[in-house]
Amino acid sequence: MSFKFFLGGADAEMRHIAEVLSTNDVPFVDAGLGWGAHASAYAAEIAVAAQDGFTPVLVELDNELHAATEWSPAKNPVALPPGTVVVDHHGNRSGEPASILQVLALIGREPTRWDDLIAANDSGFIPAMLAIGATDWEVDSVRAADRSAQGITPEQESEAERAIASTEVDGRLKVVHLAHSKCATITDRLFGRYDQLLVLSGDGEANFYGDGALCAVLKEKFAGWTGGSGLGQEGGNAFWGGNPPHAEVEKFLRERFAA
Is 229 in contact with 238 (CB distance < 8 Å)? Predict the structure, then answer.
């Protein structure tokens, strides 16, 4: 069976998948999509691949109907050719192996140590890497690769250092004022060093990392987006983000976590 892969949103795992496919001379198309990548970005190319005798493989490409939002236009599902393979490990497929491991199985290649680290990072962030015995150097290397794949610049990394040096602490809550919204520069550096974290960005974004029940409340009160395995659970680990008035969300959280 001849596969042709269509790649989803850019991160360390997706960049590594592209490298693996290229090294093994497996055809793929990478449009350099961001998070929330949708199959419609490749609609015509998927159809052509099937006509040319390839089995299309969609890697982390959403194919649901989405109405337009303030962040993105409407997205319509693609009619996928029979036999299309969909690789993913998020949402209702979260119990499956990481996408890189599914790709390796399809092309018949055994995973290396780096493959396993990339898979662990994408499935469970730093705790998952530590669970397979990752060294500090391995963790730092994978997280640096992930931030680079997301397009984070050296200047944005330096800004994160400045922002962390000016962190405000109010009881259990840490508040970081960051010029940009590349929050991985903050969460990576502060891993294991915060209970509840609010990042307020100069471009208008606000991102909260902490109690899962509170993340659900923030979504209801301020709209935006949520995620994390503990979403909706008191004490669970989750995140929320949006574009609310900063003063309002900061006041709301400080009142809950003040000493």
Answer: yes
How many domains, in total, are found in the chain? 2
Tell me: do 38 and 140 sit in the same domain. Answer: yes
**CA distance linking residue 210 with residue 254, whole number of Å:** 13
Please tell me the pTM assigned to this model: 0.86
Strand-pair partners of 170 = 173
Domain match, 29 and 70 both: yes
Question: pLDDT tens across 59-102, in order?
Answer: 999 998 888 877 678 888 999 999 999 999 987 888 899 999 99
DSSP state of 246: H
Cβ atoms of 173 and 253 closer than 8 Å: yes
C-alpha separations of 164 from 64, 148, 176, 204 in Å: 38, 19, 6, 18
- Looking at the structure, do residues 142 and 85 belong to the same domain, yes or no? yes
How many CB atoms are located within 10 Å of the residue 108 CB? 7
- Give the type of residue at 172: R
The set of residues, in sequence order, having a beta carbon less than 8 Å from that of 180 and lying 6+ positions away, is: 156, 159, 201, 202, 203
Q: Which domain holds residue 131?
A: 3-147
Q: How far apart are CA 143 and CA 149, in angstroms?
A: 10
* Same domain assignment for residues 109 and 200: no
- Give yes or no: residues 37 and 143 share one domain: yes
